[in-house]
Specification:
Layout (H helix, E strand, L loop, with lengths): L11 E2 L2 H7 L1 H8 L8 H13 L5 E4 L2 E11 L4 E13 L13 E10 L8 H17 L5 E6 L4 E6 L2 H20 L17 H4 L1 H5 L2 H12 L1
Parallel strand pairs: 1-4, 5-6
Antiparallel strand pairs: 2-3, 3-4, 4-5, 6-7
This protein binds iron/sulfur cluster.
Length: 224
Protein backbone atom coordinates (compact mmCIF):
# COMPACT_ATOMS: atom_id res chain seq x y z
CA UNK A 1 0.00 0.00 0.00
CA UNK A 2 1.62 3.29 -1.02
CA UNK A 3 0.04 6.72 -1.07
CA UNK A 4 1.15 10.31 -0.66
CA UNK A 5 -1.65 11.45 1.67
CA UNK A 6 -4.09 9.67 3.96
CA UNK A 7 -7.75 10.40 4.57
CA UNK A 8 -8.66 11.32 8.16
CA UNK A 9 -10.65 8.09 8.46
CA UNK A 10 -7.39 6.18 7.89
CA UNK A 11 -5.37 8.00 10.57
CA UNK A 12 -3.77 5.81 13.22
CA UNK A 13 -3.33 6.85 16.85
CA UNK A 14 -0.01 8.62 17.30
CA UNK A 15 0.47 7.26 20.82
CA UNK A 16 0.22 3.72 19.40
CA UNK A 17 3.84 3.98 18.25
CA UNK A 18 4.95 3.28 21.83
CA UNK A 19 3.08 -0.05 21.75
CA UNK A 20 4.51 -0.82 18.31
CA UNK A 21 8.12 -0.32 19.41
CA UNK A 22 7.47 -2.20 22.66
CA UNK A 23 5.94 -5.17 20.82
CA UNK A 24 4.38 -5.25 17.35
CA UNK A 25 1.94 -7.91 18.47
CA UNK A 26 0.83 -5.73 21.38
CA UNK A 27 0.18 -2.83 18.98
CA UNK A 28 -1.79 -5.06 16.60
CA UNK A 29 -3.87 -6.61 19.40
CA UNK A 30 -4.84 -3.15 20.65
CA UNK A 31 -5.26 -1.29 17.36
CA UNK A 32 -6.17 -4.00 14.84
CA UNK A 33 -8.06 -6.43 17.09
CA UNK A 34 -9.13 -3.66 19.54
CA UNK A 35 -8.56 -5.63 22.71
CA UNK A 36 -7.32 -3.82 25.81
CA UNK A 37 -6.77 -4.61 29.44
CA UNK A 38 -5.47 -2.19 32.08
CA UNK A 39 -2.75 -3.20 34.49
CA UNK A 40 -1.20 -1.05 37.22
CA UNK A 41 1.34 0.42 34.77
CA UNK A 42 -1.26 1.58 32.24
CA UNK A 43 -3.50 3.00 35.00
CA UNK A 44 -0.64 5.08 36.45
CA UNK A 45 0.30 6.21 32.92
CA UNK A 46 -3.26 7.39 32.25
CA UNK A 47 -3.35 9.33 35.54
CA UNK A 48 -0.16 11.18 34.65
CA UNK A 49 -1.59 12.21 31.28
CA UNK A 50 -4.82 13.43 32.87
CA UNK A 51 -2.81 15.64 35.23
CA UNK A 52 -0.78 17.08 32.36
CA UNK A 53 -3.86 17.76 30.20
CA UNK A 54 -5.45 20.09 32.73
CA UNK A 55 -8.08 22.62 31.58
CA UNK A 56 -5.53 25.46 31.63
CA UNK A 57 -4.57 24.94 28.02
CA UNK A 58 -2.22 27.84 27.51
CA UNK A 59 0.27 29.61 29.75
CA UNK A 60 2.92 32.24 29.03
CA UNK A 61 6.21 32.68 30.82
CA UNK A 62 9.03 34.97 29.79
CA UNK A 63 9.79 34.11 26.16
CA UNK A 64 7.87 30.80 26.31
CA UNK A 65 4.25 30.11 25.33
CA UNK A 66 3.15 26.66 26.55
CA UNK A 67 0.18 24.78 25.08
CA UNK A 68 -1.07 21.62 26.81
CA UNK A 69 -3.00 18.81 25.14
CA UNK A 70 -2.41 20.15 21.63
CA UNK A 71 -4.13 18.16 18.85
CA UNK A 72 -1.78 17.30 15.99
CA UNK A 73 -1.90 15.18 12.84
CA UNK A 74 0.02 14.35 9.69
CA UNK A 75 -1.64 13.74 6.35
CA UNK A 76 1.56 12.42 4.81
CA UNK A 77 2.04 9.55 7.26
CA UNK A 78 -1.59 9.21 8.36
CA UNK A 79 -1.56 9.70 12.13
CA UNK A 80 -3.21 11.96 14.69
CA UNK A 81 -3.03 12.47 18.43
CA UNK A 82 -2.30 14.86 21.24
CA UNK A 83 0.98 16.33 22.45
CA UNK A 84 1.17 16.56 26.26
CA UNK A 85 3.00 19.88 26.09
CA UNK A 86 4.29 22.02 23.23
CA UNK A 87 6.51 24.94 24.12
CA UNK A 88 6.96 27.84 21.72
CA UNK A 89 10.29 29.41 22.68
CA UNK A 90 11.07 32.91 21.44
CA UNK A 91 13.93 32.85 18.94
CA UNK A 92 15.97 35.25 16.84
CA UNK A 93 16.41 32.60 14.13
CA UNK A 94 14.66 33.30 10.82
CA UNK A 95 13.15 29.81 10.63
CA UNK A 96 11.03 30.37 13.76
CA UNK A 97 7.23 30.30 13.47
CA UNK A 98 4.80 33.07 14.34
CA UNK A 99 1.86 32.65 16.74
CA UNK A 100 -1.32 34.66 16.38
CA UNK A 101 -1.50 37.34 19.11
CA UNK A 102 2.15 37.03 20.15
CA UNK A 103 5.05 39.15 18.87
CA UNK A 104 8.17 37.67 17.29
CA UNK A 105 9.13 34.20 16.12
CA UNK A 106 9.20 30.93 18.09
CA UNK A 107 11.06 27.62 18.06
CA UNK A 108 8.84 24.57 18.67
CA UNK A 109 9.75 22.17 21.50
CA UNK A 110 7.50 19.17 22.31
CA UNK A 111 7.58 17.60 25.80
CA UNK A 112 6.02 14.20 26.51
CA UNK A 113 5.21 13.08 30.09
CA UNK A 114 5.84 9.47 31.08
CA UNK A 115 5.46 7.30 34.16
CA UNK A 116 8.48 5.67 35.79
CA UNK A 117 12.05 6.27 34.78
CA UNK A 118 13.77 6.42 31.38
CA UNK A 119 13.45 3.16 29.45
CA UNK A 120 16.08 1.11 27.67
CA UNK A 121 13.85 0.85 24.57
CA UNK A 122 13.12 3.60 22.05
CA UNK A 123 9.29 3.56 22.38
CA UNK A 124 9.00 6.88 24.26
CA UNK A 125 11.54 8.59 22.03
CA UNK A 126 9.67 7.46 18.91
CA UNK A 127 6.43 8.96 20.19
CA UNK A 128 8.23 12.29 20.60
CA UNK A 129 9.69 11.94 17.08
CA UNK A 130 6.19 11.42 15.63
CA UNK A 131 4.98 14.52 17.45
CA UNK A 132 7.89 16.43 15.88
CA UNK A 133 6.92 15.14 12.41
CA UNK A 134 3.32 16.34 12.91
CA UNK A 135 4.42 19.75 14.25
CA UNK A 136 6.79 20.19 11.31
CA UNK A 137 3.98 19.46 8.87
CA UNK A 138 1.52 21.79 10.61
CA UNK A 139 3.88 24.74 11.09
CA UNK A 140 6.19 24.28 8.08
CA UNK A 141 9.34 24.30 10.18
CA UNK A 142 11.98 21.92 11.51
CA UNK A 143 11.68 20.41 15.00
CA UNK A 144 15.04 18.97 15.97
CA UNK A 145 14.77 18.75 19.73
CA UNK A 146 12.26 17.89 22.45
CA UNK A 147 12.15 16.31 25.91
CA UNK A 148 10.72 13.38 27.86
CA UNK A 149 9.66 14.05 31.46
CA UNK A 150 9.60 10.99 33.78
CA UNK A 151 7.59 11.17 37.00
CA UNK A 152 10.00 8.95 38.95
CA UNK A 153 13.09 11.11 38.41
CA UNK A 154 11.00 14.28 38.11
CA UNK A 155 13.09 15.88 35.44
CA UNK A 156 13.29 16.23 31.71
CA UNK A 157 15.56 14.28 29.44
CA UNK A 158 16.56 16.24 26.37
CA UNK A 159 16.11 14.34 23.09
CA UNK A 160 17.83 15.30 19.88
CA UNK A 161 15.46 14.45 17.01
CA UNK A 162 17.52 13.52 13.97
CA UNK A 163 16.58 12.95 10.33
CA UNK A 164 17.38 9.24 10.75
CA UNK A 165 15.01 8.98 13.73
CA UNK A 166 12.25 10.64 11.69
CA UNK A 167 12.85 8.15 8.85
CA UNK A 168 12.66 5.26 11.34
CA UNK A 169 9.39 6.57 12.77
CA UNK A 170 7.90 7.07 9.26
CA UNK A 171 8.90 3.52 8.30
CA UNK A 172 7.26 2.15 11.46
CA UNK A 173 4.00 3.99 10.78
CA UNK A 174 4.03 2.66 7.22
CA UNK A 175 4.28 -0.86 8.63
CA UNK A 176 1.47 -0.11 11.10
CA UNK A 177 -0.76 1.00 8.21
CA UNK A 178 0.11 -2.19 6.34
CA UNK A 179 -0.83 -4.37 9.35
CA UNK A 180 -4.05 -2.40 9.83
CA UNK A 181 -4.93 -2.64 6.12
CA UNK A 182 -4.22 -6.38 5.98
CA UNK A 183 -5.79 -6.94 9.45
CA UNK A 184 -2.74 -8.90 10.50
CA UNK A 185 -1.55 -9.57 14.06
CA UNK A 186 2.11 -10.66 13.94
CA UNK A 187 3.47 -13.48 16.06
CA UNK A 188 6.01 -12.38 18.66
CA UNK A 189 8.31 -14.61 20.69
CA UNK A 190 7.90 -14.65 24.47
CA UNK A 191 10.33 -12.22 26.09
CA UNK A 192 10.92 -10.39 29.39
CA UNK A 193 8.64 -7.63 28.11
CA UNK A 194 5.66 -10.00 28.43
CA UNK A 195 5.95 -9.85 32.25
CA UNK A 196 4.92 -6.15 32.25
CA UNK A 197 2.41 -6.42 29.42
CA UNK A 198 -1.25 -5.78 30.21
CA UNK A 199 -2.25 -8.16 27.39
CA UNK A 200 -0.39 -11.22 28.60
CA UNK A 201 -3.57 -13.18 29.35
CA UNK A 202 -5.15 -12.32 26.03
CA UNK A 203 -2.00 -12.75 23.97
CA UNK A 204 -0.91 -16.05 25.55
CA UNK A 205 2.76 -15.76 24.55
CA UNK A 206 3.38 -19.27 25.96
CA UNK A 207 1.22 -20.58 23.19
CA UNK A 208 3.23 -18.75 20.56
CA UNK A 209 6.58 -20.13 21.57
CA UNK A 210 5.23 -23.70 21.42
CA UNK A 211 3.46 -25.62 18.74
CA UNK A 212 -0.19 -24.48 19.36
CA UNK A 213 -1.60 -27.96 18.71
CA UNK A 214 0.82 -29.52 21.21
CA UNK A 215 0.00 -26.81 23.74
CA UNK A 216 -3.75 -27.45 23.49
CA UNK A 217 -3.24 -31.23 23.64
CA UNK A 218 -1.11 -30.83 26.81
CA UNK A 219 -3.63 -28.40 28.28
CA UNK A 220 -6.56 -30.77 27.68
CA UNK A 221 -4.43 -33.62 29.08
CA UNK A 222 -3.92 -31.65 32.32
CA UNK A 223 -7.67 -31.12 32.66
CA UNK A 224 -8.54 -34.80 32.23
S1 LIG B 1 2.41 -10.68 26.12
FE1 LIG B 1 4.44 -10.41 25.17
S2 LIG B 1 4.19 -11.07 23.00
FE2 LIG B 1 2.13 -10.75 23.89
S3 LIG B 1 1.59 -8.67 23.33
FE3 LIG B 1 2.50 -8.58 25.37
S4 LIG B 1 4.68 -8.19 25.06
FE4 LIG B 1 3.82 -8.85 23.10
Amino acid sequence: MSQTEYEESEYLMLSGIQHFFYCKRQWALIHVEQVWQDNEYTVIGNEIHERVHDPELKETRKNVVTIRGMRVSSRTIGISGECDVVEFIRTNEDDGVSIQGYPGLYRIYPVEYKRGKPKSGVEDVMQLVLEAICLEEIFGTTVSEGALFYDKIKRRQRVEITVDMKDQARQAVKEMHHLMYSHHVPIQKHSKKCDNCSLIELCIPEMQKQDPEKYIANYIGELL
